[in-house]
Design brief:
394 residues, eight-stranded parallel beta barrel, 12 helices, alpha/beta, eight-stranded mixed β-sheet
């Protein structure tokens, strides 16, 4: 099947681009000594896990379900028993459910707590796993150093943040059993914000890196790093990691999500109708911002669209919208060299990340199929959704 034969709407994962991203990340691993993990909260299309697992050291999970998905699927070979090394599973959640804790401890390699309260509340369960040699425990800290501009919803260092322990709330010595620190402060950013954040972290939390009695063994620099973007300063990142490893003798982790699947996916859609208005003509699509790319409304942002320009940059300008009844379900204003007609197909780009993991069935909208674009140009539908998927979610 060729890509033009796919029924829309459909997410298409580009295996070639995914592999290229993973090769870049693997190179950073090898040159720096860090371990890089897939943040599943951004991309968890597990049919691609055998490919990603060839290059990365493991995954991060935001709770039990993502941890189980990684435990079951994130292996470079189908037969787990023939893997040379087991990929790591790191789990962070602001608060862990008591009923899930035992299973999380059983299948995880690193467990990160958001507060001393949570650490102590679950101590009896995680200490048992630590004693068996299967688990390392850490805490998330808040460097209180904001780098976000215009995306406050993604700023865990904003005043009043619930994410991470501030220095003023840290004990003088690390609680028994704590072996690592984690901080995550970035969102779609380059190297400089990470460098500046680490310097703030080093100034505030440096004593925990040096303490000969309670010295940590690992440091997780979180996600939000656009490492695979062309203009990212990867040499700078590698030098920073080497500095941390050399000076503090810790294992460094990075957990990008977007960088793994950046520009590695598309959302194909068909124009169902054209509505004339007092402003731009509106293209009614068989896809939806609210249902199929929620970040368009949440961040908000304007997704890239193949063969288009900004409003009025090209001859024909349209407002792209959806067949839902939500008045604000608008994707954006785009211009084209030619007139767009009912039945035309459009291709949104960079649709692998924060799309499939966040989509929903509001208005009874069908979920798009998921397909893979193979390196030979053929495509394969790996997941089809039906009415039953809508019904059983309720």
């Amino acid at each position: 099947m060729k890509i033009n034969d796919l029924k829309t709407p459909v997410y298409v994962i580009d295996e070639r681009k995914l592999r290229e991203n993973c090769e870049i990340l693997n190179s950073v691993e090898e040159r720096s000594g860090a371990k890089i993990l897939l943040a599943q909260k951004a991309f968890s299309a597990y049919s691609t896990y055998p490919l990603i697992a060839k290059y990365l050291s493991g995954t991060t999970a935001s709770g039990l379900f993502e941890a189980k998905l990684a435990y079951e699927e994130f292996y470079p070979e189908k037969d787990k028993n023939i893997c040379n090394s087991k990929p790591e599973i790191h789990v962070f959640e602001p608060a862990f459910d008591d009923d899930e804790m035992e299973e999380i401890c059983r299948i995880s390699d690193h467990l990160i707590f958001n507060s001393i309260n949570q650490l102590e509340h679950h101590r009896t369960k995680w200490e048992k796993a630590v004693k068996s040699g299967n688990l390392s425990v850490g805490i998330r800290v808040n460097p209180e150093f904001s780098t976000q501009e215009g995306h406050e919803i993604y700023d865990p260092c904003a005043p009043g943040s619930r994410l991470g322990i501030r220095l003023c709330d840290m004990p003088d010595t690390l609680p028994a059993g704590v072996e690592g620190f984690h901080f995550h402060t970035l969102c779609e950013q380059g190297f400089e914000p990470l460098k500046n954040t680490f310097e703030a972290f080093e100034t505030k939390f440096g004593k925990y890196l040096k303490d000969p009695i309670h010295k940590i063994k690992w440091l997780n620099l979180g996600g939000g790093h656009h490492i695979t973007r062309n203009d990212y300063d990867r040499d700078g990142l590698i030098e920073l990691i080497k500095y941390i490893i050399t000076n503090y003798e810790v294992q460094v982790y990075l957990e990008p999500g977007e960088a793994v699947a950046l520009d590695a996916g598309y959302l194909l859609t068909t124009v169902m109708d054209v509505i004339n208005t007092e402003a731009y003509p509106v293209l009614v699509l068989d896809t939806s911002a609210a249902c199929h790319m929620p970040d368009v409304l949440e961040m908000p942002y304007r997704p890239p669209l193949q063969n288009s320009g900004d409003a009025e940059e090209k001859k024909y300008t349209y407002r792209l919208s959806s067949r839902t009844c939500l008045a604000g379900d608008v994707i954006g204003d785009y211009s084209f060299d030619k007139e767009i007609c009912i039945g035309d197909r459009l291709t949104f780009e960079d649709m692998a990340i924060y799309s499939m993991v966040k989509n929903n069935t509001f208005n009874g909208m069908p979920l798009p199929d998921i397909a893979k674009l193979k390196e030979d140009g053929s495509t394969e539908v790996v997941k089809h959704f039906s009415y039953n998927d809508f019904k059983t979610r309720l």
